[in-house]
Amino acid sequence: MNLPAAGEPSFWTAPDGCRLAWYEFGKSDGIPLMFYHGWPSSGSQAAMLHHLACERGIRVIAMDRPGMGKSEFVPRRTLADWPGQIEAFVDFLGVESFLQLGVSGGGPYIPACVASMPDRVAGSAVLCGAVPISGDMRGFHPVYRLLFPFRKLPTACFSMLLMVAKWMIRDGGGQKLRWIARSLPEADRLALEKDPQTIPHFIGSFEGGIAQGGRGVMGDAAIYFQPCPIDFSRIESAIRYWHGAADFNIPLSKVIEFTDGIPGACLEVDPDLGHYSLALYRAGEAMDYLAKCWTGARE
Fold first, then answer.
1. Domain range spanning residue 195?
2. CATH number (domain holding residue 90)
3. Is the Cβ–Cβ distance between 64 and 9 less than 8 Å?
4. How many angstroms from the chain centroid is the CA of residue 277?
5. Of 128, 182, 276, 294, whose CB is crowded by the most CB atoms within 10 A?
């Protein structure tokens, strides 16, 4: 089944004047679901959910975070800024309540929104989600650990690193990309190779995510290292997490520690899956869960 082309995004101007890009997939008049993309990526990543959403009557709305994709850069933003932005955006859409799904780097934005507007979020799910990082990078993917010391470099230097990464993944012969793939668990390699559309789609969303260079990518990454401004320990609303025991990008131990501190969190661990494989193979299950949340909220 062919994935839809992401196309050009729509644009919305937030109350603070920031111009933000957003995409829409799935059923246009379906159940509203806000999708929070990975890092570094863009809202076009949500095209992977298009057919799953159509089958379940879900409308997927995916915004590029500030500085990512085609959304305007916002200096010194924090995780606590996101819920207000989303609330103003769904008001603009005329949506009263909504579902939300975060993948990888979009993970922390899920509990942030639940904490801020529990009465408007009808259901929340996180796939292979990142968590706030105190600075201890043990267990994270070697590329993340390599980038960590560079995060405070001038943006021009980081932009050069991103261009090198772009050159590597765009290698026509695929040799460099295969070298990177060898650092992934077998489950991830097989999942990425199973559908010929998958890797080009991930490359496209990555290229969109780094389009503004180091400033945007570093600004988005800084969110994970900031002292968390939100008290997640007060969240009673349900948040469903899925994570792979073979995730080499985001260690399961960090996710267990984080979700243990959220009363409403439920973590399901897949013993055989990694990072990308879990996102690909458990997306349908997460969408089923969210559709049930929506039905349950209206009974």
1. 10-297
2. 3.40.50.1820
3. yes
4. 15
5. 128
